[in-house]
Amino acid sequence: MLCYRIKGVYKKLQKKEYYLIKQSIPYLKTTINKIYTPCNITHIKKLISFMTGTIEVFLVSEEDGKREDLTDSLGNRNFNIYEHKFELFRTITLTYSNYYHNVYIIFYAEKGINKLNFKHFFMNDLIYISQGWTDHFSNSLFFSNIDEHKKKKNYGNKYEEFISNKYLDLGYEVKNIGIKKSFDDGGIDIIARKDNNIILVQCKNWSMSNNYKINQKDLRAFVGDCFLYLKDKNLVETKVSYHYIVSHENILTKSAEIFLEQNKFIKFKCIPFEDNKSPILK
């Protein structure tokens, strides 16, 4: 009896934490799985390796809600939906049991799984045994997503053309890199030239949502792409400007706002697509 009480006190004093694994794919419902500690990190890594999409991983304290971002080491923020075939995405549901209750883990994958890969899962200080899984995908769903992708791509091209015309009105010669090369544009949508001035432009026709927020990494990537483009160019007497233009307000994360405040050479501007009178950046 004494041992039971001591064990109970020990359990109560344990710091209750869990790994929050958030998987996001545009047009599909976001999946969220909680894996409680103590657990086997190797099992978690294996699980994440089968997931596709943007994978964010946090270690969360259930006591005070504080979270440690582990995405850089365990997840993936560099997923591009348009590099993949929609029809290959599967919804997989893993079922585990510890003889008292079941645990369900649901995620998207591009390939099927083998039961041997997930025979056991150590979590919440217990060994859970696999009770099987389901694996399915819907052609009709993904065909409609392809149509949605074409629609969004068309919106992006129209916005880029809209911004290009503003530079043309100011007397610049314009190259629409984004429209011509799509995802091979090197991170630069528009190159505008006039006299000894060159402007490198990135434009985003995104509305505010959880899936489409501009963060510090996006801005850093744009700067890096610009420097890469300029490194072999002979621009000794040329003034180079960097313009980041969006169509909707409130689309920046806090980290992006701080980055722009620290790097004022990047000119950030919101120009609504519908407003033909919006001024372009000088």
Automatic annotation (TrEMBL):
**Source organism, top-level taxon:** Bacteria
Give start and end of each Restriction endonuclease type IV Mrr domain.
Answer: 156-226
A molecular-function term among this protein's GO annotations? endonuclease activity
Is the Protease keyword given for this protein? Answer: no
Entry-linked InterPro entries: Restrct_endonuc-II-like, Restrct_endonuc_IV_Mrr, tRNA_endonuc-like_dom_sf
The protein here is known as: Restriction endonuclease
Gene3D superfamilies referenced in this protein's UniProt entry, alphabetically: 3.40.1350.10
Question: Any idea which UniProt keywords this protein has?
Answer: Endonuclease, Hydrolase, Nuclease
Q: Name one Pfam family in it.
A: Mrr_cat
